[in-house]
Amino acid sequence: MTRITLITGGARSGKSRLAEAETLALCRARQRPLYIATAEPGDAEMTARIAEHRARRGLEWDDLHAPLDLALALDASDGRGPRLVDCLTLWLSNLMLGGHDIDAATNALLDALSCQRDPVVIVTNEVGLGIVPDNALARAFRDAAGFLNQRVAGAADRVALVACGLPLCLKGAPLTQAKDQP
């Protein structure tokens, strides 16, 4: 069984929708999927995005807010069924803006992922396809996100890149829901 699935893509590419469908497909009878959210509702626009995601998922999901300690959230929730982490790049932003040790947090995440019994579907943003940012913080974020994505992709059983709502399998078996896409 696939334990770790990484789904990446650009903004509004459809990656979260596909990740939600994939997580639901991994549930067995009477299991409730768990949505591990890393977003912080720091302003009205982000609060609206969070509400949009919650409304789309509906009431069949349980939610866990984990803006910083993703490894702890995964370890604490293992054994309860499939989990969806959305998303690594918001988690990275939280770490960077809080002055946390990114390497230590990444290593803890990878250690946690290596021992998960239940499936984990992880969403991340592909941020390296655009122009080079014009400021040091944006360049540092882009570089850190690229390295984080590479490390998590290396640990994942499956990796898919989503563009225009369509997944392209990069590693492992195609997404379960890919056959249902237009």
Automatic annotation (TrEMBL):
Pathway: Cofactor biosynthesis; adenosylcobalamin biosynthesis; adenosylcobalamin from cob(II)yrinate a,c-diamide: step 6/7; Cofactor biosynthesis; adenosylcobalamin biosynthesis; adenosylcobalamin from cob(II)yrinate a,c-diamide: step 5/7. It is an enzyme of class 2 (transferase). The active site is at H53. Pfam families: CobU (PF02283). One of its GO terms (molecular function) is GTP binding. GO terms for biological process: cobalamin biosynthetic process. CDD domains: CobU (cd00544). Keywords: ATP-binding, Cobalamin biosynthesis, GTP-binding, Kinase, Nucleotide-binding, Nucleotidyltransferase, Transferase. NCBIfam families: PRK05800.1. This is Bifunctional adenosylcobalamin biosynthesis protein. It comes from Paracoccus alkenifer.
